Amino acid sequence: MHPAVLTLEEIILRFGKEKRNGKRVVFTNGCFDLLHPGHIASLETARGLGDELIVGLNSDASVRMLKGPGRPMFPAEERAEILASLECVDAVLIFEELTPQRVIAALLPDVLVKGGDWPGNQIVGREEVEAAGGKVVRVEVRAGYSTSEMLRKIRETRKEGL
Question: What is the CATH number of domain 8-160?
Answer without folding.
Answer: 3.40.50.620
